[in-house]
Design a protein that fits this description.
By secondary structure, the chain is of the alpha/beta class. The chain has 2 domains: 113 residues, NAD(P)-binding Rossmann-like Domain (Rossmann fold, 3-Layer(aba) Sandwich), CATH 3.40.50; 159 residues, Dihydrodipicolinate Reductase, domain 2. The protein is 37% helix and 31% strand. The protein has an 8-stranded mixed β-sheet, with helices on one face. A 6-stranded parallel β-sheet has the order 3-2-1-4-5-6, sandwiched between helices. Helix 3 runs parallel beside helix 4 and helix 4 runs antiparallel to helix 8. The C terminus is likely disordered.
């Protein structure tokens, strides 16, 4: 199988390294001379494409270019019926994400989206617990840490971090339980107007989801807590552990791991979907719904911040 990587910045480089480790035949289209030199130093035998159009001859493409380009690049390859893996978020705007969904359906062409936490063994185990418990009423997902070096400053914390947790929320609860209300606010800092973001989501069933994300915390945290009438489930996505409590007693304590990295598992999933028509773990429909919810949260944060500023004045 031949895969073209479109854009090889910080995260795109991880795709390059992983696919080479997987012995996949790849080529890279990267307009930045600086990035091309970095790749060439590490992998002197790698193939570069002179023109992006050359990628339509490949079996699939991986789009790791900046998010504002996702809709344009995705549309180009989908119009040529080339299966696409698009890094998260699918797009910044709901209408752009919808355009990609529609084109994927129209041309019957596969699109996977890089919501990598869905391949985390701790999340997979948590899904197993949740699927067997009909009395869940609250989910809390917290994702905190310091901004990583070289992160894309054009992507706010909602579309950079919280988008992961919105996707997992949708995966855990499904789409049949409609969202009835969302409220959100942020605590800005000097370097980031979206320094800390909190969202409260209420569903038609009465279930409540609390999401919080930040890039200003000195302690890393990626944790999900699920509360039901009788049980509590905790998934630590960093340590890849899960616990199950019943009436404050530990009923299960799972230490999970995988021989493969999460990115390798994710790319395996995409390759198998292209070559063997396997069902995708993260279909474009889930990614689209995540963009919709993220857009609502961002709009509410911006509105509430303006109201708070006016109140202070």
């Amino acid at each position: 199988m031949k895969i073209a990587i479109i854009g090889a910045g910080t995260w795109g480089m991880n795709h390059v390294k992983t696919l080479i480790h997987m012995n996949v035949d790849i080529a890279v289209f990267e307009p930045s001379k600086i990035n091309k030199e970095k790749i060439f130093k590490l992998f002197p035998n790698i193939k570069f494409l002179d023109k992006m159009n050359d990628a339509i001859k490949f079996d699939a493409v991986i789009i790791t270019a900046p998010t504002p380009l996702h809709e344009k690049l995705g549309s180009f390859f989908l119009s040529h019926k080339v299966p696409c893996f698009i890094e998260k978020p699918l797009a910044f705007k709901t209408e752009e994400a919808k355009s990609l969904v529609d084109l994927s359906k129209k041309n019957k062409t596969l699109v996977a989206v890089g919501h990598i936490e869905h391949f985390n063994p701790a999340f997979i185990k948590l899904k197993e617990y949740v699927s067997k418990d009909e009395n869940i009423f609250e989910i809390s997902i917290n994702r905190h840490g310091m901004a990583r070096p070289g992160f894309d400053t054009s992507v706010d914390v909602i579309f950079d971090l919280m988008i992961h947790d919105i996707g997992m929320m949708i995966d855990l609860l499904g789409t049949q339980d409609a969202i009835m209300n969302i409220n959100a606010f942020s605590v800005p800092c000097s370097t980031d107007p979206f320094g800390f973001v909190k969202a409260l989501i209420q569903f038609q069933s009465g279930r409540i989801v609390n999401l919080s994300s930040s890039r200003i915390s000195h302690q890393k945290q990626r944790q999900i807590e699920v509360q039901s009438l009788e049980n509590k489930y905790i998934a630590n996505l960093i340590d890849q552990t899960t616990q199950m409590y019943t009436h404050n007693e530990v009923r299960a304590n799972d230490k999970l791991s995988s021989r493969k990295s999460l990115l390798e598992l994710e790319l395996d999933d995409f390759i198998n979907a292209v070559t063997h028509k396997n069902k995708l773990t993260v279909p474009i429909s889930l990614a689209y719904n995540a963009v919709k919810v993220a857009g609502i949260i961002k709009g509410l944060v911006m509105k509430n911040n303006i109201l708070q500023t006016n109140k202070q004045l």
